[in-house]
Amino acid sequence: MPVRISASRVASSKTAIADHALLSDRHSAALVDGHGRVVWMCLPRFDSDSVFGALLDDDAGHWSINPAEPWTSSRRYLEGTMVLETTFTTTRGAVTLTDALDLGERTGPHDLGHHAPHTLLRSVTCVRGTVTVISTCKPRPEYGLVVPVFLADRHGANASGGAGGLSVSTPAAGSHHNGIMQVTVTLNEGQSCQFAAQLSRFGDRLSPTLRQQDIIAQLRRTMEGWLEWSAVHGTYTGPWKELVHHSGRVLHALTYQPTGAVIAAPTTSLPEEVGGQRNWDYRYSWVRDASFTMQALWIAACPDEAQDFFTFMETAAAYSRTDTPMQIMFGIGGEHDLSERTLPHLSGWRDSSPVRVGNDAWGQPQLDVYGELLDAAFLLREQITPLRPATRNFLVALANAASEQWRKPDNGIWEIRGQPRHFLYSKLMCWVALDRALRMSDELLAEDRKPVWAQNAKDIRDAILRDGWNAEVGAFTQSFGSAQLDAAALMIPLVGFLPSTDSRVLSTLEVISRDLTDASGLVLRYRTNAEIEGVPGDEGTFLLCSFWLVQAFAETDQLDRARDLFVTATSYANDVGLLAEEVDSRTGEQIGNFPQAFSHIGLVNAAWAIDQAEKRRTGTHPSATRGTTGGAS
Question: Which residue, of 185, 292, 561, 608, has the fewest CB within 10 Å?
Fold first, then answer.
């Protein structure tokens, strides 16, 4: 049942993270809360400055549309789409608010959003009685620094200021004061009215405000575009297929259409601890996250976008000198310099500061990325072969880098800001890189590299089994010689390094499920340690890691435990099926950037793992194994 939200004066920057829904045109994103407020929108790209930023500070702008009298609300995504419908109910009637980012002219399901015009569409329909609706549009470009000036236009008004303008289309004339535009409309049953906002860049002509019928047509084509995509991408038929298909749409919504880059999340600085400093900008394309996304889309949708992804990676990375680490993340347009800065004028969500733009992790060595990329290439090899010469050279360079660099310390999958260490997961993924490259050696035309790759793969295996296993702890641990647990060790059987029947695998699984979980069974990444991490504070349980444990249970044929934990983890999804990065063990609230690709990747892969395990039990599992980080081998 949808959650019902009552009208209140709760500040936008205090509203629960889970109270938000995602809109996307595959260029940019917006978040809408249950009050009908757009509290986060960056145009024209996911990583652009915000136009509405009240998510991080009430003075950073919002656009609310809701009834003038007290109301309750419920909401949903229209089936098969990322179009949001919020229903407001008052004592006098009810209205629906339909929100979407315009996908533009349709060119087929594999080019969804190609012609997106950077326009937010908002439609209000009275479904019962009579309701008076108030629209309050308060744009504050450049993360709240600019107060624009509104000038009336034929079908609304234009807001100019800073580096661009916003054309706001309305059904009636409104009042303008101090950079705020307000419009009041009374609707009777069956009547509707339309609103829109479109970005214009400074120096370009302001986009014309739109007629009511134009907004209706653009909203219709956007709904049809999502439905067309879903119709050809809903191939998964296993358990929890609705959740899996929805997660596939979310992951597609987090993909930057012009380049194929995949962002980790559409927000910045939503904290891992309320009031804490672990606030990072996730609006960039991590090699790791993007690779995992391609693997999840193989299950939840279809892999037809794989070539775009590898073209983006090989072009953005331009990686060939294998004696130095490859950069681990890029801007969605392929940018390399993602230098971090803080925005001191923003108070942050629930006063969690600093608010950061950029992410200094771009300069870290993280050796696991070679394995994640080659693992994705191995899984998607049917979609990307015959290999383009540039792709083949890139994949060979990745294998050579893993072969040359695996003995070095790095900052690891969790991007510690302390001293580099010999992280087990990084070594494991270097082994994956070489294992997958050896399996693909014919396609890579790399017969001459096989002896070197095979020897280094053996050396990595020997090192992990010797230095990564801690007999006293009874588990593979976070780094060589360490006694600290790390959920990333759950990947050992999932990538095919050791069989699920190995006593060390089973022991590691039991120790992690006993000592690295909260009361609900959700999994921590590790126990926080400021000395190791270089950042003070604590964090919640990590949803991706919880789904890894589900996969590990499924792989070891503990299906009841797998199902129970899957149900627990997915129960934290909000009323429109979205997951943040973490869950606060004390309050049960979702925390961290939102929605988080990692969490939806984990959901997809965990459901798939359970499906595969059930088929193995019934003897219907195909003989071929997937052999990837996304599922059981």
Answer: 561
